Amino acid sequence: MKQYSSAITLLLVLLAIYWSFEASMPSYTPDTNIENISFSTDRALVHVKNMSQKPHAVGFPAHSEVREYIRSELTKLGLETSTQQGYTAGDWGNFSSATNILARIKGSEKGKALLLLSHYDSNPHSSLGASDAASGVATILEGVRAFLEQNKTPKNDIIILISDAEELGLNGADLFVNHHPWVKEVGLVLNFEARGSGGPSYMLLETNRGNSKVIDEFIKANPKYPAANSLVYSVYKMLPNDTDLTVFREDMDIEGLNFAFIDDHYDYHTARDNYERLDRNTLAHQGSYLMPLLKHFSNSDLTNLKSPNDSIYFNIPFFRLVSYPFDWIFPMLALAIAGFLALLFLGLRNSSLEIKEIGRGFVPLFIILAINGLVGYFGWTVLKNIYPQYQDILHGFTYNGYSYIAAFVLFSVAVGFWAYHKFGKAQTQNLLIAPLFLWLILCALVAVYLKGASFFVIPVFALLASLLILTHQKLPSPYLLLILTLPAIWIYSPLIKMFPVGLGLKMMITATLLTSLAFFLLLPLFGPLKNKNRLAYLFLILCFGFLLSAHFSSGFNKENAKPTSLVYILDADKNTAQWATYDHVLSSWTSQYVEANKAEPKNPSYDILSSKYGTGFTYTSEAPVKNIAPPKIETTLDTIIGDHRKLEICLTPQRSTNRLEIFTNDVEITKATINRIELSEYYLKNRKNSKLVTHYVSNNDYTELQITIPKESALELTLYEASNDLLNNPLFTVPPRPENNIPMPFVLNDAILVSKKIKF
Predict the structure, then answer these.
(1) Beta strands in 665-746 (DSSP E)
(2) Are the CB atoms for 205 and 233 separated by under 8 Å?
(3) pTM (2 decimals)?
(4) In this predicted model, what pLDDT tens digit does every residue of 336-384 receive, in sequence order?
(5) Fewest CB within a 10 Å sphere: which of 112, 609, 701, 712?
């Protein structure tokens, strides 16, 4: 049996990796006939299907249809619903009319209320919004139904808020938090979101103080499949990504928990965010969070969730969510360092460790980090040069992205086996000293600069235990060493995949370096292997296999369609027009208007138009001038008051429009309101590209501006009025996209844009 132990342990390592993913979320099985008091994924799917038939962004015809559907479903549950309507500009200068949907389940006591939150608007202009966020709304509708079927009165009130205009700037949440009386009663928010169409749903905290009490209560609620760790929490806080929950934290200091999934990121905000592509396991995972949390927090004291202390937390199979206080970080680090020094001293003393062989162990370590770091850092750039069409997937995660992650991970493992075969000619216990030294440095750094990642020390303790065994046993059991590698496998395997999926393949360096670092933690198993060179070749062959698979799926088809864009731009001042596109590689559909001898954009000022990733037009060409009316501009007030000049300007659309962007010249704006909603002083001082405001228009509403500037200043406004009707406007004959094309998300698309300047 011993002759097969190496093969068996390698197979068990692969099984442990598989289990790290399999145990992170439930497996969907049809459950239409499940008992009424339980959450049914199938019943939730009915809601998703009904809400994701058409794009339903603010101002779109289907927007009100989805709102009325949600209200009717809440009414069917016996709940009294209401709406909250109002204008808001949030903190992003994105102004819109938002209509929130509200309902309430009365509790038996007068404590703080639990609020269930998701949003019902889809992203403009083509997203069907099945995952983002019909899945969240459906989770709440089905969860509340199952909860009410239990016929138990909760201690706390349960507020249901289905917010509006989240995609435009968290406007509905801003409206509720700053203008609804119920907000003062809220003690905790559970928010359900999506940034893809599959995979595990990650729990992310929103708190201004410490997280320890919220984490303790979350653990008490005991959800079966928690996917959370304090590293992701720390990284999330540093990113510019916000959810509705951010408004509750920033404006009212209310704690909350986000539940969001990010796999299949390529579907995010696209026409492919549909019912069919929503992962059923993922929706089941959302339900597996809501039901125990709803039961627990509807009966818990929500007045005492604030804490000055933070906790480290992470999930692993069997143990679910493990947590311990930040106060343990430095004692645990000190214990690990002390253990390392003690084992090093004892090993040198009993001659199980040798200085020369320890020194050799640093050579493969640095080679692995150098090669895998460089390959990970430049990998995405190289891929975009080989496959320029990838640049048209703006969020940076391609349809074949999982193949690339697998290929880079396999390459990193191959480099690991090759380096230790070529340069690691030493006993395994000696090879462990270099990784332990490196990992202790990393743990010290994260203890100071990224405390949420301090659970990295847990696998280091396991590696120290392996060193103890190897320095005291000549023939240690490989199965015991395998058990000691499980913390590393279970902690790092999901992280290796998560970062390039969620943040795009530009973050492939996280996958290659984390793979390298995890490989070092598995050295007690890999070090004694005699066939490391063969394993290097095997993993390299597998790497090329995945690269070949990615190559054959690098094109586009009906299921994995190419994002394309087309905009007609009319300059109303010059009476000239042009076609413009954001495409880097023109499709046959786009090239009907932007020809093969395409020109670089003639007017780079259009690059200031709002887009998620700051994307600018790539190519333009001349277009026929159409008779499209610009907005009507009326100055209703222009007066000097003290040292300031006050202007009132009314902009009225002369055609059906969806969006109006307003920019100014380089002038100080001391105060500005839009439709009587004041833009914050912070926003006016920090606005980018001289943008004053973006009005996402509902019901073809007018835009009324009140602007105050220094009296000696001259004001120039640049208006960009857009309608998303290029494909069905009778003035144009743009054909429908072919089946292997979809509208490019995150940018102005399928639009007729009219620009106009006016001086005051």
Answers:
(1) 671-674, 677-678, 691-696, 703-710, 716-723, 741-743
(2) yes
(3) 0.94
(4) 999 999 999 999 999 999 999 999 999 999 999 999 999 999 999 999 9
(5) 712
